[in-house]
Amino acid sequence: VRNKLRDVVGASTNWRDHVQAMQERKALHTLLAKRQEDLPPRRMKDSYLEVILPLGSQPEIREKYLNVHNSVRFGRILEDLDSLGVLICYTHTKQEMQPKSPLSIVTALVDKINLCKKIIYPDSDIKFTGNVSWVGKTSMEVTMHMLQLQDGEYSPVLDATFVMVARDPENKRPAFVNPLVPETPEEEAVFKQGELNKLRRIDFNTASLLKMAPTAEEKDIVHDIFLNTLDTRQEGEGGRRTDMTVSFRSRKLPPNSVWMEDTKLKGLQICHPQERNIFNRIFGGFLMRKAFELGWATACSYGSSRPFIVSVDDIMFQKPVEIGSLLLLSAQVCYTEKNYIQVRVHSEVYDANTREHHTTNIFHFTFISENDVPRVVPKTYGESMLYLDGKRHFTAVMKEI
């Protein structure tokens, strides 16, 4: 898949040649469509791809995918899904008689990845399938499925929805993509779901707690948590205990709970050329893998047992990460319910010259632990907003699965 992507874009595997190849892409500007109407429509089956990851038939590649629990590293699967999603979009937009594509197609959003299996086995072949399921003017939704060979049949493991955007050869401005024409009632339903997904994302973003106050019900939740942490057994003057006088400052942790501020784990990555994508930026799949691994470690530490990934949702790629950047990752448990752990990972780049920090991604992971976990408790208003945001993501995931 990655070799095909290099051929489509004209990228080189050599770091110095690669820079030159990117310069040569400027000449492809003349191949861009001025209007979407000038591009031939495509069918869903035109972009359909099947790819086999031969873990069973080629044991020599297992090591890269293996974790300490003798199952497949989910972070590697995230990398593969990201690469496949981009290739599917290039297949959709491929023009006859043009060996190199003038488009720079990049991941804008991981809408959702829902898993129906806890364990992915390291010694059985995996099949990925996918196609473009919805198209806007310059963006494409890609639906992908992953299956694993068991008892001679491929059984479902996960479903994924990514949103990709097309840009000009230098990855600077939006570029038009081929329209998509559904052919059957089933495809009409899939396309309509793509429209609904877009509207849902707009609604979710509009109601963001960074823009709007919590709902009345959410305010009650925050207030109940606050009241539950007040210390009503304080000492007055001369050591006398005064049960009637409650200070807003004196807080205590309820039983079987953990303060949210004590759930953080942090990490740092130096972004080397090895992790670059075909456009000379850090590969989005690499960022997802690193964020997932830190999120998993956070859930593991919090629940004191092995967590399993249930869902990934709403990963917005806000800013590209340049080669040589210092990438700072911060993971935090933001919501818990029974044996579920909702983890938020914040990713930012640090410029050592200007000393400026810029957010690149926010990742949301839902894990399930083997045992019930302590309740996470926010202390500040800001943490309470993280708690409510985590609860919103968790509720949305539970509806999906």
Structure overview:
The protein folds into 2 domains: 1-181, Hotdog Thioesterase (Thiol Ester Dehydrase, Chain A, Roll); 216-233 and 246-399, Thiol Ester Dehydrase, Chain A. 29% of the residues lie in helices and 29% in strands. It has helices at residues 2-9, 15-24, 62-65, 74-93, 185-206, 216-228, 284-303, 381-400, and strands at residues 49-53, 104-115, 126-135, 139-150, 153-167, 234-235, 241-242, 257-259, 265-270, 308-317, 326-337, 340-351, 356-368, 375-377. A hairpin with a 2-residue loop joins β4 (139-150) and β5. The chain is globular and about 80 Å long. The two termini are 29 Å apart. The mean pLDDT is 90. It comes from Campylorhamphus procurvoides.
